[in-house]
Amino acid sequence: MRMSFGLEQKMSQKQVLAPRMIQSMEILQLPVLALQEKIEQEMNENPMLEVQEQDGTDLDDMPREEPEARADSEQEFVVEDGKDNADDFERLLEMDQQYPDTFDERPQRSSGQMEDDAERRMDALANVQSRPETLQDHLEHQLSELTIEPLLREWAERIISALDSNGYLTTNIEDLLPADADDELKEIAQEGLHVVQSLEPAGVGARDLRECLMLQLDPSRMFYDELRVLIMNHLEDLRDNRLPQIQKATGFSIERIQAAWSELRRLDPKPGSAYNDAHVANVIPDLMLEIDEEGKYIVQAEDRDIPQLRISNYYRERLSSPTATREEKEFIKRKLNAAQWLIDAIVQRQNTLSRVAQAIVDYQTDFIDNGPEHITPLKMQQIADQVGVHVTTVSRAVDDKYIQTPRGIFALKAFFAGGTVNEAGEEVTWDQIRLRLQEVIDNEDKAKPLSDDDLVKKLKDDGLNVARRTVTKYRKKMGIPSSRQRRDWSKK
After folding, report:
1. Do the strands 402-405 and 287-291 form a parallel or antiparallel pair, or are they unpaired?
2. Are the C-beta atoms of 215 and 203 separated by less than 8 Å?
3. Helix (H) or strand (E) holding 97
4. Are 208 and 166 in contact (CB under 8 A)?
5. Separation between Cα atoms, residue 322 and residue 145, nearest integer Å
6. Residue 75: which of 83, 84, 85 has the closest Cα?
7. What is the pLDDT of residue 256?
8. How far apart, in whole angstroms, are the C-alpha atoms of residue 432 and residue 439?
9. DSSP symbol at 464
10. Sign of dihedral through CA atoms 454, 459, 462, 467?
11. Predicted confidence band at 48 (pLDDT cuts at 50, 70, 90)?
12. Which of 18, 41, 151, 317 sees the fewest Cβ atoms within 10 Å?
């Protein structure tokens, strides 16, 4: 083996993404709300950026109020003709480095502008939904209204804090007790559990499903006696629809078992889940679908919620000022380039998003006219080829984006669907196959429900060649039980 040191020249090919291209891709991927946050962040960091008022008012032409006298450390940076202002600018650079998140380098705004900004912030705060009440909040509020001993209250609070999101106590009480706990303390802990289990919602504080359901039973409930027997001894039989076995063991008729089972379904197996954070963020569509005079769908980018940015004239003029120092000009140029990049990226985002969405809408007109069941198989590569961009650009453009249509608001991703070809050579989406599968099961004879093999044959009769494992997978995804579990034993 020969080793040597020397210079070697060779050619290789690699792709390098420019910072501007990376920023454009990041901006493209942002939905409206995230883009608003990005713009606000950039405006805080870059004094070159200003919001173009809707009425076209030039902010630089508006009169500025004279500030009151301040301490030396709080004085404004004032650029005056005839001075190089080097000391002031050095102070600005130093403060920018020390306080990058808090120091605002933009020119002093008028009181009217500041009032408008304050009103916008107040409106935004008013539209923010407050934190929803948690299960622990709900239980502790009830507990505060009870007159009980302090130690018992302490243990009830400890048990409440140990509940999971569904309201179950998955930790043994013994694990909550100190190692040297005596019998009296153990008894208080058990009593604390009973206090928690007496609170609403019924079933909270249970240690397993049976206890949860039993806690929700009331002697006044219909089929109370039957429900106690079913819950304590036959939950697994109910799960597997083994009604004849329950009939044999209990002596209840099939009809009575089914009636009690129907009542059992009214109980909540997860009583705490209703208090989970159920806040759903409001969907703001990035695109609007309009109809032109010829009846064609036209996509419009929704930009009313996106601030219209521009470069500050104040700093443009300062850049060409003969009194500006070299350091000042370099600072302005750097910030100005970053501002222009952002503005260009936003414009490019709107353009790309509109083109991609228009291509999708043109392809899925039947979907919009007649509903999701009429969706056509569509892949992102097809849209990429039509628009003339890379498929990853399409993926970023549709990610977490929504469009307002006459049929409602849809995620752009909802318009993409895989599929297969039926015996007639026509393309059929998997969604259409699932809809047909649901229809077949809904219309089956519940006394003799169709097995997965039977479902395959039924679909084949419709010209849909689907493997048995695919039918099983779709059935489970759709929450449809097996043929045994779907059987109605009251029908002969």
Report:
1. parallel
2. yes
3. helix 86-98
4. no
5. 74
6. 85
7. 93
8. 11
9. -
10. negative
11. confident
12. 18
